[in-house]
Amino acid sequence: MKISVENLGKLTKAEFSLGDLSIICGDNNMGKTYATYALFGFLHTWRKHMDFYISDENIASLFDEGSVSIDLREYLDNAPEVLQKACMNYTKKLPDVFATNAKQFNDAKFQLFLDESEMHLSNAFQRTIRAANTELFVLNKEAESTLLLVTLVMEKEVLQIPQIVIKSIISEAIVEIIFATHLPRPFISSAERTGAAIFRNELNFARNQLLEELRQRDTTIDPMDLLMKSSRDYALAVEENVDFTRKLETIFKQDSEILNTAPEVLDSFAHIIGGAYEVDRNNNLFYKPKGSKVKLTMDASSSAVRSLLDIGFYLRHVAKPGDLLMVDEPELNLHPNNQRLMARLFASLTKVGIKVFITTHSDFIVKEINTLIMLHQDKPYLKKLAKEEEYSERELLSCDQVKLYIAEVALIKVKGISRRIKRPTLVEAKVDPELGIDARCFDTTINDMNRIQDAILWGEPL
Fold first, then answer.
1. Is 442 exposed, middle or buried (0-12, 13-18, 19+ CB in 10 A)?
2. Which of 245, 258, 271 lies closest to 316, judged by CA?
């Protein structure tokens, strides 16, 4: 998957691809969060921006014969065109995604490209359309088949759904069949997550108070409809993160797929926070330190516990293979050692089928990922070292799993200008199996600090 953006925040023009572990680093105010939120917004809303044409003949056959088989190969051929149209539609929604002035995105452009050679129709699909408790029709596709079978369950004389709605339902099914396996389900942990953890109860109280006030004043008002239609005050990524945090007591009642398949990943996370999150029978959220009977509210817990709250609930109660976990500044409030452990946790997640995308200012995280890459080599002394330092095989990364981009000013080609000019962009860093990642944005700062300290210590002549 490749993403291309133009005139997005500080980024004049940039391209980046997703690996199993993707990293964007660089100076402040260079567009890292813009790239992250734009990608999240598309992956969160792409179904709304896509549709395929369903012919009248297909609908006529459905009503005349009671079923219709739709050949999906033609739709697969048109998939790149549909995807780019979706990107155009999404670009127009960027002001809503970022909750900011539309003029800021007048010249913006967002594009996402999939490898056409990897697109396929091998996945199975089944969906039953109901009204109340009555089945209306069924859409079914067998694994490896190229046909989508749509079958009426209710008598056509009784079915009261307009044809345009039926076309839309079939189109949505085809969109799901073609794209769902290639566009991962995103979960975002924004940089605002610590505040959401502290004020989650106040957010719930304010929301419930508003709904109750609306109910009492006018019974003709649909409170939820009013809330959904109101203008967005925060970026979509932040709102989704806050909304997730508000629902933790409900989310606590379900288990993620990795809870049973990869409990060692959850153990690693528990080690980082030094305990566990719990919800009691009264739906009160607590943090319980390991080996202690004490239960702490989020207000009384450490900033590290609060900043990892949403990630902890995601991993234990929501995560499943195929997801994309997006974390803006995972180093927030973490001691350097825990930053290293977070890097190892992210590597472990890639082994259970969850891709990870982070923006970071942490040299500790990037250098730990370097270590995981360099230890992956098939050399006896490195295997011995990994064992001595207690690195597990699931934490090691091959260099082709990692993509790292530096947000910086660099020479780029801009439309309408014949020569390359310096503008903010994303520059891909080299990832070497023996040397790791060339993250020069950190090296320059560290070298400057070392140079100054050397001058302080050794600069005076003897």
1. buried
2. 258
Would you call 39 helix, strand, or coil by DSSP? helix
- Angle in degrees, CA 232, 236, 241, rounded to 5: 115
Report strand pairing: 355-360 vs 324-328: parallel
Of 318, 322, 250, 313, residue with least CA distance to 287:
313
Give the pTM: 0.90
431: nearest Cα among 34, 3, 11, 17? 17
Separation of alpha carbons 354 and 351, rounded Å:
7
Cα–Cα distance measured from residue 136 to residue 315, given in angstroms and rounded to the nearest whole number: 37
CA distance linking residue 103 with residue 49, whole number of Å: 22
Distance CA(223)–CA(210), nearest Å, equals: 8
Q: How many CB atoms lie within 10 A of CB 136?
A: 17
Distance in angstroms (rounded) separating the CA atoms of residues 108 and 209: 39
Distance CA 313, CA 309 (A): 6
Ranges of H-type helices in 93-151: 94-98
Kindly give the residue spans of alpha helices, DSSP state H, lying in 71-188: 73-77, 79-92, 94-98, 163-179
**Alpha-carbon gap, residue 265 to 347, rounded angstroms:** 10
- The predicted-structure confidence for 175-234, as pLDDT tens digits, reads as follows 999 999 999 999 999 988 877 666 666 555 445 555 555 556 655 555 545 544 445 578
Burial of 285 (0-12, 13-18, 19+ CB in 10 A): buried
In DSSP notation, 356-376 reads EEEEE--HHHHHHHHHHHHTT
Residue 70 CA to residue 58 CA, distance in Å, equals 8
**Separation between Cα atoms, residue 301 and residue 45, nearest integer Å:** 34
b/e per residue, 216-236, with b = 16+ CB within 10 A?
A: eeeeeeeeeeeeeeeeeeebb
pLDDT in tens, 52-63: 999 999 999 998
Residue 210 contacts residue 162 (beta carbons within 8 Å): no
Give the SS3 label for residue 79: helix
The closest alpha carbon to 351, from 390, 384, 394, belongs to 394
